[in-house]
Amino acid sequence: MAKVAFIGLGVMGYPMAGHLAAGGHEVTVYNRTAAKAEAWVKQHGGKAAPTPKTAAEGCTYVFTCVGNDEDLRTVTLADDGALAGMGEGSCLIDNTTASADVARELAAVARGNGVGFIDAPVSGGQAGAENGVLTVMCGGEEAVFADAQPVIDCYARSVVLMGPAGSGQLTKMVNQLCIAGLLQGLSEGLNFGQKAGLDMERVIDVISKGAAGSWQMENRGSTMCKGEFDFGFAVDWMRKDLSICFAEANMNGARLPVAHLVDQFYAQVQQRGGKRWDTSSLIHLLANDWTPS
Predict the structure, then answer these.
(1) CA–CA distance, 186 with 251 (Å, rounded to integer)
(2) What span, in angstroms and rounded, lies between the C-alpha atoms of 65 and 19?
(3) Catalytic residue of the set 47, 172, 226, 275
(4) CATH code for 170-287?
(5) Tens digits of per-residue pLDDT, 241-281?
(6) What residues contact residue 271 under an 8 Å CB cut-off, 6+ apart?
(7) Which is nearest to 262 in space by CA: 233, 242, 288, 276?
């Protein structure tokens, strides 16, 4: 069991930190909105800290799960950031979905301070975080990863080292690109079935057991047909993630024609008021006539 800090208690970080506490670790939390950190302590025990630096002091492992690259730099590299409080031999584990560039940047700074670093973005959504069954894609040094993996296991079903620093983030980009294209295809197929007058629950039950089956179909197919989207992974977050993918593709030369098209569709969902709708809301564009104001 270890002394652990968790920085960022959003819809993912809050339950992930809870699993660390349930695993027997001594957890100190920090959140920009202090009331959420206090609520977490009331529910899970441990303690709350006023800054990332004070949260990290004396901890063997420090986890971060925030919004984007700049948020991550703020909670790690600022004067009151986590790295200012971390001791030699400790490890910074970043669960934020961010760029590979910032992962490499943090790895270099951490190494200069005698601190290990793992970029460890996750997949599995809010439900995966709450149930402790996330997939964690990691980048970093093998020895650092081997040491940190048993702690990461507290909230994960699968934890895999993909390569050096930045590799976890690059793998998460692949994940998001695949989801974007899959959801558009699923939206078109389900909407077609509805227009054809089929019993869509029966359709989903049949085809989910064949080559068209996917996590999205099994977990979102029914709600998509019902037009229910007030849950899950928000459109705003997906567009943020896709922007990271596009920036990386501009550097490595990868072509992303379908992803760019789907991103435009997500922009239309945002215009309909769906900024916080689940990413499966792509079907709303097909199922509902609408003229923007």
Answers:
(1) 30
(2) 14
(3) 172
(4) 1.10.1040.10
(5) 999 999 999 999 999 999 999 999 999 999 999 999 999 99
(6) 292
(7) 242
Pick the CATH number of 3-163 from 3.40.109.40, 3.30.1340.30, 3.40.50.720, 3.40.50.1370: 3.40.50.720
Count CB neighbours of 61 within 10 A: 24
Is 172 part of the annotated catalytic residue set?
yes
Q: Which helix (H) or strand (E) holds 47?
A: strand 47-48
Burial class (CB within 10 angstroms; exposed 0-12, middle 13-18, buried 19+) of 171: buried
Contacts for 280 with CB less than 8 Å, ≥ 6 apart? 183, 186, 187, 216, 220, 223, 224, 229, 232
Q: Structure pTM?
A: 0.95
CA distance 279 to 127: 14
AA identity, residue 210: G
Burial class (CB in 10 A: 0-12, 13-18, 19+), 114: exposed
- Sign, CA dihedral 171-173-176-181, equals negative
- Spans of all domains in the chain: 3-163, 170-287
Q: What's the token pair of residue 138?
A: 């990691």
Joined tokens for residue 260: 């760019």
Name residue 37's amino acid: A
